[in-house]
């Protein structure tokens, strides 16, 4: 596909996506993923193998550590942890952690409104807050109130036909078997370090990692939870029994069939390109939050999108930008 | 005979034959069985022995074989049918066989081959004494139907009078048996007045095991899915290559030796995408099983065309384009296309279904089947059926190949001789084991 020039207009200012390219889109139900490849930015510690949840020091207080010998860790925006025998929390913001450094996040959100919702998991695993909660969570960064997201979680649960409780596990755990299939229904490409997500043809988010390893490690959390929850809810054909019968191509031979398939795919890819071009644009404000040597962590806020980015000069290193409701 | 349809029916419809007292036999799929028998008696009989066929469907096959006339059949076919019937009488639970024999009485079906099979079951079954004790009235009915009531009672009277080998007894009873002396006391028992031994023989299982009983591990891991896959997982993980390759060659050879040679061309579309690699505890589970199947097929098939989609067997990556894979496979001019995948179609879900729906109008008659690579025998496939119209079957263990290959090759004309040869081999094996079961015990030296 074409160079990623369209997104330069989507995200103006300090985020340059020069050199990044879009790959062939993939679909899974209502969710479309457009792979992004581009130049890697070495030296960033990836979140699964390097970043650890050290402890939960009471409600709303989560300590992370960068266990790597060298390299700075970029805490993925809206990362949340599920662990045994502790309340589960998610962060409202991204952050830098130098090698060996510990960071106590005082503004974390508890995502379990009451006791009784502990999850028993053999392994600690992490998620990214569902799309529906991200704008609100970003607004609440810096606010030390562990229950600040419970009402929004309750609304999300009600929208999914679940009890109106501030328990994110109602979705993440009970539907985990279905949600985690998104990591196989959509598969990252070799060298992929980012993705555009669309839900029902509407722009949902842009995720960019420093390098393919970082992206691979955050892939499941993104596709299954950050975007998978909304995609699953929006998928009109998630009931396989209701799938319409497949429409045959107009072809009277194997060669014609192959050509018809090619044409059809080209048309679908062109439609997705049109949707990318049609993503609403507008002015955004960029507020610097943190620095680490040459790296800058900034919050981006616009009418159509929000999120956080990490840049080195005008080069994009990390981005997690999502459509605002 | 539509082999795939019949085989699927035999493997999935397990409803019991019922014979209400005073009512008619409930045999809902009699027409299907009758038509299949009429079309190809030997092929039909052998299919009843295919791995995975439901016991009550095997009972129906036995009923059909015994109810139908063999007029016009050549001797080899009659011989195959007789051996199959005998194997089935030993491989089915005795209660099933009794229902079949009583059904024959209700259908008023009797032929020489019926008589022989019934008498050998009643008088020579390895558990005959216990069966007679437990089900004497029913077995007496079977015995009298087989011989005719007057003849049966005449034989019994003579035996009671001490006759062990008169011309009458020989012509009417003993010539049907292989161990006449052991049978005489059982005829007496049939007409005896002993009290019924409640709940003994009825609970007996089959005397002959036709399908190997497989124990499912409590936890299915990447390496308890058969030897080949286990070795492959260690190779993929970077284990000591030399030892593992030697073992792999032996394991593939042993597995392939169980199957006859497929003389046609099989095009195998192998999903080598990232999801086939998997992650965590189940990393390599699916791909190793798919690779094991590919390796066995490479030994079994005279010509095997492999089309990988996504990445490669040793380096699975990327997205799954099954639709284009099938088109590439059809381009090789195969007798059969088999897709091996976890069922996650990534590029544009629905393309495979559309391609499959177009094949008939595109003039393509080559059969296409879908082999689901599973984590366990009970995966949720709701989101993993990219082309529901395709015949599909799952496999998660190397032992599943015994059912998978007959099902696959049964879909193409070139597979017919393969299937027949495979089932003949199976019949020979079962027949030898049946001989050992029913052989008269040697007198002590």
From TrEMBL, chain A:
InterPro entries: ARPP-1 (IPR046699). Residues 21-322 form the ARG and Rhodanese-Phosphatase-superfamily-associated domain. Pfam families: ARPP-1. It comes from the Bacteria. This is ARG and Rhodanese-Phosphatase-superfamily-associated domain-containing protein. It comes from Actinomadura viridis. The lineage of its organism: Bacteria, Bacillati, Actinomycetota, Actinomycetes, Streptosporangiales.
TrEMBL record, chain B:
It comes from the Bacteria. This is VWA domain-containing protein. It comes from Actinomadura viridis.
């Amino acid at each position: 596909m074409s160079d990623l020039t369209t997104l330069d207009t989507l995200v103006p200012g300090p985020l340059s996506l020069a050199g990044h390219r879009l790959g062939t889109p993939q679909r899974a139900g209502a969710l479309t993923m457009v792979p992004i490849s581009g130049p890697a930015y070495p030296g960033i510690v990836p979140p699964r193998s390097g970043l650890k949840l050290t402890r939960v020091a009471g409600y709303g207080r989560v300590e992370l550590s960068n266990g790597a010998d060298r390299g700075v860790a970029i805490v993925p925006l809206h990362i949340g942890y599920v662990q045994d025998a502790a309340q589960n929390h998610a962060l409202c913001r991204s952050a830098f952690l130098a090698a060996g450094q510990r960071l106590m996040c005082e503004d974390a959100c508890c995502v379990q409104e009451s006791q009784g919702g502990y999850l028993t998991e053999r392994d600690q695993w992490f998620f990214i807050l569902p799309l529906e909660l991200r704008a609100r969570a970003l607004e609440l960064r810096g606010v030390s109130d562990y229950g600040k997201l419970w009402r929004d979680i309750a609304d999300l649960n009600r929208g999914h036909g679940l009890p109106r409780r501030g328990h994110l596990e109602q979705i993440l755990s009970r539907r985990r078997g279905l949600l985690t299939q998104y990591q196989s229904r959509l598969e990252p490409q070799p060298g992929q370090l980012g993705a555009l997500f669309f839900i029902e043809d509407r722009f949902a988010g842009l995720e960019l990692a420093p390098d393919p390893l970082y992206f691979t490690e955050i892939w499941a959390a993104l596709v299954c939870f950050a975007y998978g929850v909304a995609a699953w809810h929006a998928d009109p054909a998630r009931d396989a029994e209701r799938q319409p019968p497949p429409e045959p191509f107009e072809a009277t031979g194997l060669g014609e069939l192959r050509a018809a398939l090619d044409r059809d795919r080209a048309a679908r890819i062109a439609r997705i390109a049109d949707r990318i071009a049609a993503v609403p644009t507008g002015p955004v404000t960029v507020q610097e939050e943190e620095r680490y040597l040459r790296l800058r962590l900034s919050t981006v806020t616009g009418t159509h999108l929000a999120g956080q980015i990490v840049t080195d000069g005008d080069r994009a290193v990390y981005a997690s930008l999502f459509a605002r409701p | 005979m539509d082999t795939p349809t019949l085989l699927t029916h035999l493997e999935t419809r397990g409803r019991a034959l019922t014979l209400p007292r005073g009512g008619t036999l409930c045999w809902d799929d009699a027409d299907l069985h009758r038509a299949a028998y009429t079309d190809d008696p030997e092929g039909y009989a052998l299919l009843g022995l295919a791995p995975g066929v439901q016991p009550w469907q095997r009972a129906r096959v036995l009923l059909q074989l015994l109810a139908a006339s063999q007029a016009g059949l050549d001797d080899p076919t009659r011989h195959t049918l007789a051996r199959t019937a005998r194997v089935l009488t030993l491989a089915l639970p005795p209660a099933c066989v009794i229902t079949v024999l009583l059904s024959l009485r209700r259908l008023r079906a009797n032929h020489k081959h019926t008589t022989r099979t019934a008498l050998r079951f009643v008088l020579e079954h390895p558990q005959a004494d216990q069966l007679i004790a437990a089900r004497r009235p029913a077995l007496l009915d079977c015995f009298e139907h087989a011989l005719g009531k007057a003849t049966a009672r005449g034989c019994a009277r003579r035996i009671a009078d001490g006759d062990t080998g008169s011309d009458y007894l020989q012509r009417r009873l003993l010539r049907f048996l292989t161990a006449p002396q052991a049978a005489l006391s059982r005829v007496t028992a049939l007409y005896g007045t002993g009290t019924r031994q409640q709940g003994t023989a009825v609970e007996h299982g089959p005397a002959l095991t036709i399908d190997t009983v497989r124990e499912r591990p409590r936890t299915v891991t990447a390496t308890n899915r058969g030897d080949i896959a286990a070795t492959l997982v260690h190779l993929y993980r970077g284990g000591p290559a030399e030892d593992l390759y030697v073992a792999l060659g032996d394991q593939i050879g042993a597995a392939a030796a169980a199957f006859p040679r497929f003389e046609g061309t099989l095009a195998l579309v192998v999903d080598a995408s990232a999801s086939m690699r998997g992650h965590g505890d189940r990393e390599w589970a699916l791909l190793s099983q798919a690779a094991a199947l590919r390796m066995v097929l490479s030994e079994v098939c005279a010509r095997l065309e492999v089309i990988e989609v996504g990445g490669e067997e040793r380096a699975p990556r990327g997205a799954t384009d099954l639709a284009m894979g099938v088109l590439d496979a059809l381009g090789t001019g195969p007798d059969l296309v088999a897709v091996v995948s976890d069922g996650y179609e990534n590029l544009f879900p629905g393309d495979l279904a559309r391609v499959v729906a177009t094949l008939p109008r595109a003039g393509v008659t080559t059969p296409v089947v879908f082999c689901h690579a599973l984590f366990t025998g009970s995966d949720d496939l709701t989101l993993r059926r990219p082309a529901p119209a395709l015949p599909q079957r799952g496999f998660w263990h190397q032992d599943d190949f015994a059912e998978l290959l007959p099902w696959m090759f049964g879909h193409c004309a070139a597979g017919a001789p393969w299937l027949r040869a495979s089932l003949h081999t199976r019949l020979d094996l079962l027949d030898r084991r049946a001989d050992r079961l029913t052989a008269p015990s040697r007198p002590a030296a």
